[in-house]
Amino acid sequence: MPRWEHGSEDRLKTAAIELFDEQGFEGTSVVEIAERARLTTRTFFRYFSDKREVLFAGTDGLGTELVGKIADAASVADPLRLVVRVLASFDWAGLGSPNTQRRRRAVIDANPQLLERDLGKQHSVAVELADALRQRGVERASADLAARVGVQVFYTAYSLWIEGGGKADLASISEAAIDRLSTIMPKREPALKAG
Amino acid sequence: MPRWEHGSEDRLKTAAIELFDEQGFEGTSVVEIAERARLTTRTFFRYFSDKREVLFAGTDGLGTELVGKIADAASVADPLRLVVRVLASFDWAGLGSPNTQRRRRAVIDANPQLLERDLGKQHSVAVELADALRQRGVERASADLAARVGVQVFYTAYSLWIEGGGKADLASISEAAIDRLSTIMPKREPALKAG
After folding, report:
1. Residue-wise over A123-153: b if at least 16 C-beta within 10 A, else e?
2. Cβ–Cβ under 8 Å, residues B186 and A182
3. Residue A156: its chain B contacts at CB < 8 A?
4. pLDDT tens per residue, range A152-184
5. Which chain B residue shows the shortest CA-CA distance from A120?
6. How far is CA A190 from the centre of its chain?
7. pLDDT tens for residues B130-180?
8. Cystine design at B43: which of A128, A173, A182, B39 (Cβ 3.0–4.6 Å)?
9. How far is CA A115 from CA A12, A119, A153, A155, B80, in A?
């Protein structure tokens, strides 16, 4: 592989997302993506099966990695926070710079089919996380709830993070989102009433 | 319209979901659905544009109705519980009996494209609910979180409800799901540490 092909995958991703953002996903061809990245279509197909994959490659290992982290966690006593934390600790740079991720998000939100695909991926991750929590002995209903809610809390934080250009720390924003959830939760514990 | 066509829409829904469940969504034709319902394909197309619509018609008015209920709510001080309650108060019978809804759910879960479509609908509802909360003066980040998390809490309860054949009350199961969420939430309030 010639030296100039170093970083081809990242260049293709950045070029694709720029073009999708500028002229729409449907209106962009693989040929244009390769041209913008100054690479051949042959190189494009070495990395991606089609133009849609450019948006979703980079999180392929997400489920497996998160499941591993749940399995290795010191404690699962705080399952919702654990789910949010393992998501926040993932290396999202595989989707490009925070700015590229923001543009990627805009492209996905503008196209119902891409959005449905993305929601399908989030759902699969929630199902895998719930299974991993059950493996650690968390009761089924609590595992489902922690996984499904935790994924939503994380993605709310993730949206704020990319909107802010990645300047703040994703882990801190995620912790703040959990704290915000506790402020909008109904308080029913007697201890709180007494306090 | 002849008298025997009374209830045609429900008969078509029930027939379709039975067939999808028995022989798969892809393997079922509109002709078979009409035959099972003892109606003509012409009648089928009077109610549904295609076989996929049979699964999703019946919740068409969901977003609009929920938005109206948020607008009319006495208070939005407890936004997460409000979201769960308006969802639980929707008339889900438009999707058939609880048993039909359970079979419908199994059909959707077995087909990635149907699942993505369903997740897209849930997401649209969350976006509409978040907008409605903001209209009522709830801060954006809290509105987003209450809507996204509330939808997940509700669907966790809804799954338990259809699995139980609709015997228990959906509203009660939903309240129990909110209570469960508060038990898996990290407790950070000083009052609890002291308690």
Report:
1. bebbbbbbbbbbebebeebbbbbbbbbbbbb
2. yes
3. 141, 144-145, 148
4. 999 999 999 999 988 889 999 999 999 999 988
5. B116
6. 38
7. 999 999 999 999 999 999 999 999 999 999 999 998 888 999 999 999 999
8. B39
9. 21, 6, 18, 14, 24
